[in-house]
């Protein structure tokens, strides 16, 4: 792959995920520092599509910017810092509220895998409900205890759904994360459309295991496609 | 915030709300005069997206332009003048027929809050039916008695649904109004999609109260995002 | 109104109706000659959006071009010529297969009026089934007997649905026709979305009569909006 | 028709089918060599919309490039080579996973013909399930035995659905293939929308036979329309 800097990757991911309807004015995506696992990159509080590389800040795993700044921060950045602490295998994280995923967060529906590309989400997508552990809240994950609870629920899965809220997706690399986030949403859309007409046929665990390992070339092919679709690509 | 004039804010809101599918060739948005509470700003009768600052007129609370003009006026401008009279706390109003909200105006469905951002609509969204008080009409709210009836139904809520017609939304500022109008529609869309699959989980009144107060920074973040999405932004 | 020529009006209508998802590569729109009621204007066979004024031909009421031409003609132009013969009050016609209207042509659903603007379609929208009178066909209306049967079914209504095929809409002017075609489709969309959730509230015949008469200013407002949305407007 | 080269036709088809939502970052389209039936043209592995004429390679019917190349190949190119071997009448092939067709691959729904243009898919669209013959797989068709099984299931039809995967469409020419792929998806969309409301009226076999033969002018009219819709057309 090219020697793209974390600043470039984070802003590209922000724009791609917005263009592909995963993010809108809200939601955020981060990546771990490539050489210092105790640091990660995330933008200041801003609509993801509008972020430039100058908006990408470096954070430590307590969730605070490494360099003091007067800029506003995402109130939910604790999701990222806690997950980077708990999951050493994770190098990129996206928290979103895509309309494709929300029906699974509202109705009594189980997210399954229905296509080869959708297998990127993996065999188990657990559901976390902030209300269960924390009672009545504004549904923002801003406290360490909430983020830890979310991380426990995620376990070693690739994605966790959040009741009445959205989803948090993790990846081994930014390309894998973007691929998983987008094709997770696409797979969700397809099964929603099909479920309108009754029972559907889904991938077995064995098939998910066989289909869900994507070579770098597959991730790159999709990445270049989404990149080409950016405004002013 | 910047020192944007009412004329700028009204035309920006018109364009944003059209771009985000709240308005189309019809519907309208107004704001109260910042220093004279007995006046408000609204465009002449025109498709909202096409209005320029020269199309923004100043009205008094009887619903008539302050300066005589030969220009055609919105037949439903009485909605705005009556609501500004009845609700001193309201500084901006949008009347729309968004496809996101119409199913709630046609089917026997209750609009709920299902996301943090959707809490902007508040705990109670009453339903007004012109037919109940006024019999067979063309469904345009053009008489003071109709507007008063609508205002009574709205009460101190943030939004009122209108049977077989649309919705009227109010806000303390233009930014709050635009945020509430758009995220109200987004929340409606999400619950419609989910309701296809049976019962859904919704916010409690306590959660709506906790989630529904948005800091100015949140409103501004969304405002800048929608502004960036305008044609020729 | 401006002194737009029939050639300009026909090409504008073609482009607007495509932009608003009434037409695609197929479907067609015509208008009667403003001074010679025995003539009408329609393009040669071409995707509507691609037609220029040079593609607009003059036809007589037998459905043949007034000037001989080597250009291919729409195979269904007989719909237009027969309707102009049968309905002296009609000055513009659109035949389309909009996805908004097709569910009413396939499922056992009755098209109703659910909004003020949708009242443009009028109180009765009859359903015509080519199969009933003509047995197994390719579903193109290419014979005079088929077009006459369609016209009989239309009667004095504003629109007729065609089973497994689409819709034919008529208007007193091009602006009225375009307004009726687009808001007919919008109204159909809204009721489809609402019908997913059970019974819906619809306009009464009296309300349709009250709402369905639109002043020229209303038609012009929508016309200018749609015109502004054309590519290279 | 113009003397367009296979390289031009393949890249145009790739772009049109992406623009019309048949392909996305995945899926592929090929055409047989116009003078050497033992060869066909397909791009290297790349998102279809991004392919230039330089990306179009010549393959033999074993599925290998005629000239050795270091470029990555589509892992499912065996679908094309086997179908060109088995179906001498076929000169163009598209394999896709369009969201319009996927509900038929997931739910217990039979694809029917509901419009004149949709008759392009023909009377029988068989369903192939890789799981039946090959057990648990990653759902990619990469082995000759799998492609042969798919071809057997297709038989002399125009299209075969693939359970939990997508569709493979064949045509006598590139124009016919593109027309069939797109209007097949459009017809699928229409029936899905209508099926939400219960039983629907569909074309009989006799009507499909009457409607499904399209003159070259019809294919060309649609082709020019889709071409005009390409970015930078």
UniProtKB/TrEMBL annotation, chains A, B, C, D:
GO terms for cellular component: cytoskeleton. One of its GO terms (molecular function) is actin filament binding. Residues 8-192 form the Class II aldolase/adducin N-terminal domain. Pfam families: Aldolase_II (PF00596). It comes from the Bacteria. InterPro entries: Aldolase-II_Adducin_sf, Aldolase_II/adducin_N, Aldolase_II/adducin_N_sf. Belongs to the aldolase class II family. This is Class II aldolase/adducin family protein.
